[in-house]
Amino acid sequence: MPPSARRKKLDLSSIRPAHKFTIDTLEKLADDLQKGRIPLERVTITDEMQTGLRAIVRNTGGVSFHVNYDVDGSRPYLKLGEHPGMSIPEARRLAQIVRGLADLGIDPQAGLHERLIRELKEKGLKWRP
Questions:
Q1: pTM given for the model
Q2: 60-74, pLDDT tens digit by residue?
Q3: Residue 33: alpha-carbon gap to chain centroid
Q4: How many CA atoms lie within 13 Å of 12's alpha carbon, on the beta-carbon side?
Q5: Which among 11, 33, 103, 112 counts the fewest CB atoms within 10 Å?
Q6: In the predicted structure, residue 96 carries a pLDDT above the cut 60
Q7: 14-45: string of b/e by CB count within 10 Å (b at 16+)?
Q8: How far is CA 126 from each of CA 14, 114, 118, 120, rounded to the nearest angstrom?
Q9: Residue 58, exposed/middle/buried by CB under 10 A (0-12, 13-18, 19+)?
Q10: What pLDDT does 42 receive?
Q11: What is the DSSP letter of 38?
Q12: Cβ count near 5 (within 10 Å)
């Protein structure tokens, strides 16, 4: 697929805003992407109820929830989870917590690598970075 096809903006104006960020809408987009009815690799949908929350729908059928936040002059993204393991209300609540921490100057991703290494060592698993 040429790069220009991947960067096209999808016109979602036919989807009513009140129903844009629903599991049904995300699953329909995933189905359309998988079946080639939408010639893109992924579609990003922004939640209008929770600032910073986005769902990324891939042509493999996967749907993942991400939140962006401001900390120390940067705007990193944090993956919150995937559907069906996470619901939209859960993603909204987590996004609210992540953004609240960032508002207090706490980077929610700080120390995650160290924690992963520590937990893997505690469980006796060998892991190489």
A1: 0.74
A2: 999 999 999 998 888
A3: 17
A4: 17
A5: 11
A6: yes
A7: ebeeeeebeeebbeebbebbeeeebebebbeb
A8: 51, 15, 11, 7
A9: middle
A10: 92
A11: S
A12: 10
